[in-house]
UniProtKB/TrEMBL annotation:
This is Peptidase M28 domain-containing protein. One of its GO terms (biological process) is proteolysis. Residues 105-226, 253-336 form the Peptidase M28 domain. Pfam families: Peptidase_M28. It comes from Acinetobacter higginsii. The lineage of its organism: Bacteria, Pseudomonadati, Pseudomonadota, Gammaproteobacteria, Moraxellales. InterPro entries: M28_fam (IPR045175), Peptidase_M28 (IPR007484). GO terms for molecular function: metalloexopeptidase activity.
Amino acid sequence: MFFNKFLGVCVLTSMFAISGCQKNEPHSKEKIEDVSQSGLKLDAAQMMTHLHAFEQIAKQHGGNRAVGTQGGLASADYILDQAKKAGFSTELQTFENREKTKGRNIIVEIPGESKQSIILLGAHYDSVKMGPGINDNASGVALLLDLMTQLSSQKVKLKHTIHLAFWDSEEVGIAGSQAYVKKLTAEQLKAIKAYINVDMVGTKDPEILIADGDKSSIDEMEKMLKERGMQEQDYKPLLDGLRSIPSHSGDLALENTLKAFFKEKNLEIKEDVATLTASDTAPFLGKVPVTSVILFNEQMKGDELEFAPCYHKACDTIEQVDPKSMQLAGDAVIHLLTSLD
């Protein structure tokens, strides 16, 4: 999760909880069951196995997996190896970020009945230089790797082609996903039926953030700030900035799908706009339907806001990850895929 000027807004939005709350050989095209009928379920234990692997990579390479470092390169190699074992084709996309560091995006293709209809799921695999980034965001990567393995082993029939994007340099300017989007043609953007971002999904005792597709939470925020006597000139620039964030007509349907999932589980959610600009959703906003699965646990450490324990620190290790949170996030992603297929 990349920290930007809007992300601190999460302190305010936390007051608005609502209930409901290079190329390899392609994989075999044999498929047996539709996603909606397959009983597909991700496995938290397997996700934790991947997290242990990423933690070992960090330990062996200076304690981090940051873009351009040996830990970052080893993380990319691990992802490529997992895709090869699953039998899926991969594309490696290189770019330079604002610090002139070379990054590598990895795109895994899981063929469906139509190559002109794509569901894109993404998670950044780089960490900050201060720590191993196991929750932020090896957790999201581990979820996508397990999804890839499950789709391979269960030979699920897919209506849409699925692309799994493992982004680099999210922590330095959200550069990987930006480089990817910049290269897409209008026709390629149109083919993407949804982008689902997965970030920090191992957080213990999480608050569930739902991307606010219709920005209704901004109006609620304004109403509450007025009721509390805050002067308009103090909050209007912030809210105007949030309202200016691009949106897509398909965002709301994805929001409602996630709301229904968490409502069925009797879990509280928070509608949120600010985090859309602070992760790999940002380059896609207004271009394709977007949603995200993000789990926060906001804490004030003196004057510093942490969005989860050990956020952007050396202690962001596997001890900070709750397998139950990983399973919940995995179930939410499968629910989204089922609704889209």
